[in-house]
Amino acid sequence: MAEWCGVCAICGGVDPQHLDHDHRTGWVRGILCFNCNGGPGRFRDSPMRLARAITYLRGTTWQRALIHPGVYQMCSPTRGRRPSPRF
Hints:
With 87 residues, this protein is of the alpha+beta class. It has one domain: His-Me finger endonuclease fold (3-Layer(aba) Sandwich), CATH 3.40.1800. The protein is built from two helices and four strands; from the N terminus they run ββααββ. The strands form two sheets. A two-stranded antiparallel ribbon has the order 1-2. Strands 3-4 form a two-stranded antiparallel ribbon. Strand 3 and strand 4 form a beta hairpin. The radius of gyration is 19 Å and the shape is elongated. The termini are far apart.
């Protein structure tokens, strides 16, 4: 735990107070803040599930695409639909 330095091992938040451990082995992995401590367990400690979640988040982030000088269209890098207009 020499690398702890008083910050959450995931987000870098100060004063983390939760000891994270591997649920299969019981080995301590690090010290996390409250919010980050729940994340690994919700993904069942699976790097593959976390990787799919990251891919999902990146693919659903809408971006502006220039279609004409001064005119932008919102699009998603992995989805063909535009977002619904907000009223």
